[in-house]
């Protein structure tokens, strides 16, 4: 059974799908930041081997300033790598037996949680667009609802077509159960009259 | 007019403080809103270790610098 802190958990509610972005997306971001981290040694090699500004780096005044700048540079590259992971990890889309929960970390101290009952879902669309998404099979699932937030978007999730199919099945079951519940409630009210 | 080289060191310390604050808030979010798995814990510990390594290497080189030096920013003109 999938475990996650579920806001306003209902009785008999279980998690069916717990989705995050495909790991390839965070892999690309980490590769980008590693390339940024390689820039100073590349520039140093280019400048020193090319005999450009060679004495610059041995100056007793300039070298300490460069040292401090390098330290700040690598500290912030490292913290931004970690921040990319935190942003990836805390964006979660949850499908339970009762509802859809959309948890998005828009930035530090900016967290948005939206949820909607499954029986209110009107339309589900999946999209795979681009070379990497097609080869690795990740994409976007759009869920149209009859609510204040009209559309939920599951971004860069693995296997979006399968996700859309599962949600469609759950929505059908939920609508059937909801109709039966409404009919029972009406019958109970008629019986009491 | 002179600028003490140590001024850049104090500015550096300010950025280190900003880094520590940013790191703290990232770790706070992972611990508070993330699932408490072994992987998450290991990643947080790995992040802290690498941060300490970067700071230790920086400190090793920074401690070798003579921060009492001063930078003369007054332009010096020589007339022939």
Give the secondary structure arrangement, pairings included.
The complex is a heterodimer of chains A (193) and B (80).
Chain A: E1 15-19, H1 23-49, H2 62-90, E2 92-96, E3 99-107, E4 110-117, E5 121-127, H3 131-136, E6 138-145, E7 151-158, H4 160-192
Antiparallel strand pairs in A: 1-2, 2-3, 3-4, 5-6, 6-7
Chain B: E1 2-4, H1 6-33, H2 38-62, E2 70-72
Antiparallel strand pairs in B: 1-2
Condensed summary:
Helices cover 49% and strands 26% of the residues of chain A.
Tell me about this structure.
The complex is a heterodimer of chains A (193) and B (80). Chain A is α+β, with helices and mostly antiparallel strands and 193 residues long. A 4-stranded antiparallel β-sheet of chain A has the order 1-2-3-4. A 3-stranded antiparallel β-sheet of chain A has the order 5-6-7. In chain A, strand 2 and strand 3 form a beta hairpin. Chain B has 80 residues and is mostly helical. Chain B has one domain. The model of chain B has no long low-confidence stretch (mean pLDDT 88). Chains A and B meet through helix 2 of A and helix 1 and helix 2 of B.
Structure annotation, total helices of chain A: 4
Approximate shape of chain B: elongated
Q: Tell me the strand order in the biggest sheet of chain B.
A: 1-2
Average pLDDT score of chain B? 88
Mean pLDDT of chain A: 87
Order of the strands making up the biggest sheet of chain A: 1-2-3-4
Number of helices of chain B: 2
- The structure class of chain B reads mainly alpha
The largest chain-to-chain contact, stated as pair and per-chain residue counts, equals: A-B, 27 and 32 residues
Largest sheet of chain A: 4 strands, antiparallel
Low-confidence stretches of chain B: none
Which consecutive residue ranges of chain A, at least 5 long each, have pLDDT under 50? none
Per DSSP E runs of 2 or more residues, the count of β-strands of chain B stands at 2
Helix content of chain B: 55-70%
Major β-sheet of chain B, in short? 2 strands, antiparallel
Kindly estimate the percentage of residues of chain B that lie in beta strands according to DSSP: 5-15%
Tell me the series of helices and strands of chain B, N- to C-terminal.
Answer: EHHE
* Rg estimate of chain A, integer Å: 25 Å
Strand content of chain A: 25-35%
